[in-house]
Amino acid sequence: MPSAEPRLRLAPSLLSADFGALGEAVRAAETGGADAFHLDVMDGHFVPNISFGPALVAAVRARTRLPLDVHLMIDEPLRYAEAFRTAGGDTLVFHIESRSDPEATIRAVHQLGAAVGLAIRPDTPFSAVEPFADRVEQLLVMSVHPGFSGQKFLPDVLPKVAAARQRLAALGTGGYVSIDGGVTTETAGAAAAAGASFFVCGNSVFTGGSVGENLHRLRGAVEEGARRAVR
């Protein structure tokens, strides 16, 4: 993995897009400056909601060449990793709180040729994922409780973002610290200042106004926050 500090990336969450015009939403976000797409997979067990499976990931893959960040909010990510990799996932993000063994899941995803993201809920301490930080390409800090879009950002998670950034910087892996949940022009700056480098943004991209203009405003907020960051 590269040792350089990762560049700031915006990843629109397609859960917030209009599924009836998903191709148009993908094109608008890609044209508007998105760096990747985030796809929230929910199984109705790990979180109290059901979203979609590999077929939708494959449909998005057919419509964009941007990286697909597949967030597996499911009980058994190891069981389904190959299906989502085959569908086109470039990074498979799973939760430390899931039932799958973290070591085995990380190893399996890497063997499939995908990058690994390791996620924690707002109430899970950073210490739960710290032992695996040198083996993953992304640490994702949830800034809402997983399962539903449109929740408000929880600022109490920012110290975990800072801890993740400091740990990855010390390792020199170039891994990303991802923030997911309630990321808006009002909250993105604080997350960037804390050390986030990968920003999952849903309603703030696809609800109200032009997708391109929304992404432009978000990038401005992120870049301003990053200038305030203490490394």
Can you tell me about this structure?
It contains 8 helices and 8 strands; from the N terminus they run E-H-E-H-E-H-E-H-E-E-H-E-H-E-H-H. It starts with 8 loop residues before the first strand and ends with a helix. With 231 residues, it is an alpha/beta fold. Helix 2 runs parallel beside helix 3, helix 3 packs parallel to helix 4 and helix 6 (188-194) runs parallel beside helix 8. It has a single domain (9-225), classed as Aldolase class I (TIM Barrel, Alpha-Beta Barrel), CATH 3.20.20. It is globular. The relative contact order is 0.17.
Brief sketch in words of this structure:
By secondary structure, the chain is an alpha/beta fold. The protein has one domain (9-225): Alpha-Beta Barrel (TIM Barrel), CATH 3.20.20.70. The chain is built from eight helices and eight strands.
